[in-house]
């Protein structure tokens, strides 16, 4: 690997978004006198009578949760998108707007209020994966749904309003901005090379072995070369798969294993319940040919130096481009050593 990548300010190119990230390795030596986050104190109970998501409890809209025993899914009571929005639009010179339709769901990973994915067994995480697959397929069969976004916000730092282990699924008519970028870049590469861009990238990463954190027979967890967040991780299937329904039944437990390893190593890093936003990017559901897509799951954790010091995306990051201090290689090595 080129030595300047460890010592000098440089830019790295994100092949998926076709955007650059500024890397400044020397800035890790600067003292920190900025904001420090408060850590969540104490352990959570397995059941919280005041939690809207616990089994048997009443939610804010008056609906009562069943006494579920594994994964529980329901339509979001305060959805950002609804399927009954009337179609409206206007285009007045440089001012343009249109209504958007969709279906938003909440996915409770476990009935146990105290757990996160890091504390769940691989078999229980596998149930979550199977639920994701079912929802992606069922939601995508709606004529007005063209994309299904699966994600999780974990921790108060990430704006999570309820600590119960859960994620969300937002499905919608239009393609989101990040998906449009990734669709374009992968399609252009596939047209030129007749191969998945991420499959080619993964081949290169496996040969170099500079940023691999963990792998099993079917999946790889790595810190992408262009990572923005300090300890960002991407999970990739070794086989070229366009969406998560193409994961073979024998592979779901291996996907569960990688998620388990990643979330556990995060908790070990700063000895805390590690916050992050995670999400799966995969092929749209608009009945087009998406053979160029290679699905992947990304974890964007904000913690930078400790459980109380986070990476703020402000100033230069807001007005110019993303910037990071810790190199992808050093982050990968730190995480790998904790396995």
Question: How does this structure look, described?
Answer:
By secondary structure, the chain is of the alpha+beta class. It has one domain (43-337): HIT family, subunit A (2-Layer Sandwich), CATH 3.30.428. The protein is built from seven helices and 14 strands. The strands form three sheets. It has a nine-stranded antiparallel β-sheet, with helices on both faces. Strands 1-2-14 form a three-stranded mixed β-sheet, with no helix packed on it. A hairpin with a 4-residue loop joins strand 1 and strand 2 (19-23). Helix 2 (122-140) packs across helix 5. The longest helix has 19 residues, at 122-140. It is globular and about 60 Å long. Mean pLDDT is 94; it is low at 31-35.
Please name the defining characteristics of this protein.
globular; 7 helices; 339 residues; 21% strand; alpha+beta; HIT family, subunit A
């Amino acid at each position: 690997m080129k030595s300047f990548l460890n010592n000098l300010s440089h830019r790295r190119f994100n092949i998926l978004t076709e955007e650059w990230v500024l890397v400044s390795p020397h800035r890790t030596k600067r003292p920190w006198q900025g904001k420090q986050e408060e850590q969540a104190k104490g352990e959570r109970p397995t059941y919280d009578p005041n939690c809207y998501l616990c089994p048997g409890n009443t939610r804010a809209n008056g609906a009562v949760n069943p006494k579920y025993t594994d994964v529980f899914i329901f339509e979001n009571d305060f959805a950002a998108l609804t399927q009954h929005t009337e179609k409206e639009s206007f285009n007045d010179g440089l001012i343009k707007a249109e209504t958007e339709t969709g279906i938003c769901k909440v996915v409770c990973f476990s009935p146990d209020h105290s757990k996160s994915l890091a504390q769940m067994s691989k078999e229980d995480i596998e149930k979550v994966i199977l639920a994701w697959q079912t929802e992606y397929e069922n939601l995508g069969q709606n004529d007005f749904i063209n994309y299904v976004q699966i994600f999780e916000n974990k921790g108060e730092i990430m704006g999570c309003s309820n600590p119960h282990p859960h994620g969300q699924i937002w499905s919608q008519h239009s393609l989101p901005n990040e998906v449009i970028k990734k669709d374009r870049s992968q399609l252009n590469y596939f047209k030129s090379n007749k191969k998945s861009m991420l499959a080619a990238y993964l081949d290169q990463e496996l040969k170099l072995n500079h940023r691999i954190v963990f792998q099993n027979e079917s999946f790889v967890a790595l810190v992408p070369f262009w990572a923005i967040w300090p300890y960002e991780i991407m999970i990739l299937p070794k086989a070229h798969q366009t969406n998560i329904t193409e994961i073979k039944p024998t592979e779901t437990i291996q996907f569960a294993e990688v998620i388990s390893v990643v979330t556990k190593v995060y908790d070990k890093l700063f000895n805390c319940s590690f916050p992050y936003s995670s999400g799966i990017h995969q092929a749209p559901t608009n009945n087009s040919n998406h053979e160029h897509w290679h699905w992947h799951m990304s974890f964007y954790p904000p913690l930078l130096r400790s459980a109380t010091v986070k990476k703020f995306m402000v100033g230069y990051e807001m007005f110019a481009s993303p910037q990071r201090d810790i190199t992808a290689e050093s982050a990968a090595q730190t995480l790998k050593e904790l396995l």
